[in-house]
């Protein structure tokens, strides 16, 4: 089979001799591969690579010794430059199919280091679906500090590793620990914060919805008279109180509940949302669509749900004025994005 392109999740897409669609794990665009069908569905098949007959010139031997055993980093067989090209092509495809819009072909994807970038990780002591334990001595995507911690942990329990940098970050120390959400790529995070800050501009009111420990508000608060930060995890509160200044309020409540009760504030504010991978619920989306927001920043760790929600916002009359990607998760097919909407 000749592979035409990669799709969301990274599988290669092509057509079998009878014209039917086949998704091949581990295959890259342009490659000719011998495959073994592993699953036959009504409309498509899934397959694995048996032999690569014509490789992509940017294919490489996965550099990590645990590749294929630990279950992570499934894009290692592509050179980093190709990983970025693939992320761009997958995202363009997603937006064209799901959001029904064409993003600029060369929309920006900001990149940092390909290795040693992660400041948080969960270590498992069993492989998913098996009882095999893989003794990992060093993980190539973890920061040096986390690799030091990895050496210290006991091989008996599940452990969260976290290093929110002991030193200041963009001039500030941000309080958080492993019990709450925190971004995992500290090298590229300042870029995202700067771009969000530029897009938000300044004004009377910033609503930081899905705020975690108040990361974005911590850097944008000086540009607004008042900041309201919404987060449903109550464990974030004690950190947010340290991270946020006097013009900020933190509410430990769901985005849906708070926005439902305070809809009149939405149209007066610059609104920043940063939901989990599932994107926003229909309930929240309806509220955002009904209350015309002059500037809406949507930060997303899942382009598929961002594309879905973009369509709904466009249907409600919003205009998409900027889209950028941030390669927060090298060696995977995940991409962080920021989309800016206005009316
Ligand atoms: C992707 S994180 C972003 C956190 C923060 N903006 C940051 O960058 O550190 C999403 C956050 O939304 C919170 N969350 C999930 N569902 C929520 C909801 N329905 N209402 C409010 N917060 C929610 C999670 O607890 C998590 O802290």
Write the layout of secondary structure elements.
Elements: E1 3-6, E2 12-15, E3 21-25, E4 32-40, E5 44-54, H1 80-99, E6 109-110, E7 120-123, H2 144-152, E8 159-162, H3 189-200, E9 203-209, H4 215-220, E10 224-231, H5 237-243, E11 248-252, H6 255-261, H7 263-266, E12 270-273, H8 282-290, E13 295-300, H9 303-315, E14 319-326, E15 336-342
Parallel strand pairs: 3-5, 6-14, 9-10, 9-12, 10-11, 12-13
Antiparallel strand pairs: 1-2, 2-3, 4-5, 7-8, 13-15, 14-15
The structure holds S-adenosylmethionine.
S-adenosylmethionine is lined by residues 181-183, 210-212, 215-216, 230-233, 254-256, 274-276, 301.
Quick take:
It contains nine helices and 15 strands. Bound molecules: S-adenosylmethionine (SAM). The site of S-adenosylmethionine has 19 residues, from helix 4, strand 10 and helix 6.
């Amino acid at each position: 089979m000749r592979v035409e392109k990669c799709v969301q999740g990274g599988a290669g897409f092509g057509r079998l001799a009878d014209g039917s669609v086949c998704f091949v794990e581990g295959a890259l665009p342009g490659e000719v591969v011998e495959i073994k069908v592993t699953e036959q569905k009504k409309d498509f098949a899934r397959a694995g690579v048996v032999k690569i007959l014509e490789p992509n010139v940017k294919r490489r031997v996965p550099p990590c010794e645990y590749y294929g055993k630990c279950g992570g980093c499934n894009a290692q067989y592509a050179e980093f430059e190709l990983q970025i090209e693939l992320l761009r092509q997958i995202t363009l495809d997603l937006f064209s199919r799901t959001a029904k819009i064409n993003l600029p072909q060369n929309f920006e994807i900001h990149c940092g280091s390909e290795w040693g970038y992660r400041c948080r990780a969960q270590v498992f002591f069993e492989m998913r679906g098996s009882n095999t334990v893989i003794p990992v001595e060093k993980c190539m995507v973890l920061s040096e500090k986390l690799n030091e911690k990895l050496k210290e942990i006991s091989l008996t329990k599940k452990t969260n590793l976290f290093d929110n940098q002991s030193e200041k970050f963009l001039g500030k120390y941000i309080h958080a620990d492993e019990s709450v959400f925190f971004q995992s790529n500290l090298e590229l995070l300042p870029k995202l914060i700067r771009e969000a800050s530029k897009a938000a501009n300044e004004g009377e009111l910033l609503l930081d919805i899905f705020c975690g420990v108040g990361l974005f508000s911590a850097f944008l608060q000086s540009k607004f008279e008042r900041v309201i930060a919404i987060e449903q995890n109550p464990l974030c509160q004690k950190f947010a109180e340290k991270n946020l200044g006097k013009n900020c309020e933190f509410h430990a409540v769901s985005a849906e509940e708070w926005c439902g009760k305070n809809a009149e504030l939405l149209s007066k504010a610059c609104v920043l949302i940063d939901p989990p991978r599932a994107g926003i619920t229909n309930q929240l989306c309806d509220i955002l669509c009904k209350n015309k927001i002059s500037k809406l920043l949507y930060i997303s760790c899942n382009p598929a749900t961002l594309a879905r929600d973009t369509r709904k916002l466009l249907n409600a009359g919003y205009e998409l004025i900027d889209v950028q990607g941030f390669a927060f998760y090298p060696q995977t097919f995940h991409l962080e994005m920021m989309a800016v909407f206005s009316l």
